[in-house]
Amino acid sequence: MILRALGLRERGPEVISCPTCGRCQIDLVNLVEEVERGIAGVDDAVKVAVMGCVVNGPGEARDADLGIAGGKGSGVLFRSGEIVRKVKEGELAQTLIREVRRMTE
Ligand code: SF4
What we know:
Elements: H1 2-5, E1 13-17, H2 28-38, E2 46-51, H3 57-63, E3 66-71, E4 74-79, E5 82-88, H4 92-104
Parallel strand pairs: 1-2, 2-3
Antiparallel strand pairs: 3-4, 4-5
Bound molecules: iron/sulfur cluster.
């Protein structure tokens, strides 16, 4: 992770998440953990953003290869800076994992 932060390593997924705050509307910690577990075996470099709200989340989610901005009971999925669709909260982790695998295979 240190090597990646310094731009010296370009391998495997990089998961970015927000620190959460009062605006967070999803169970972000568990969501991030599930996503990290689900993409742990991916070798290709891919930047994934998991953000807690639709106020500041979309900016970071658009900058990543794949991203989610959480909303009330749902989230918006972004791919390469574009909105793909709205996803129910219970399906966010598996949707993101599937998209990462699709993008890197
Ligand atoms: S992305 Fe939203 S929920 Fe996360 S820290 Fe920023 S404002 Fe708070």
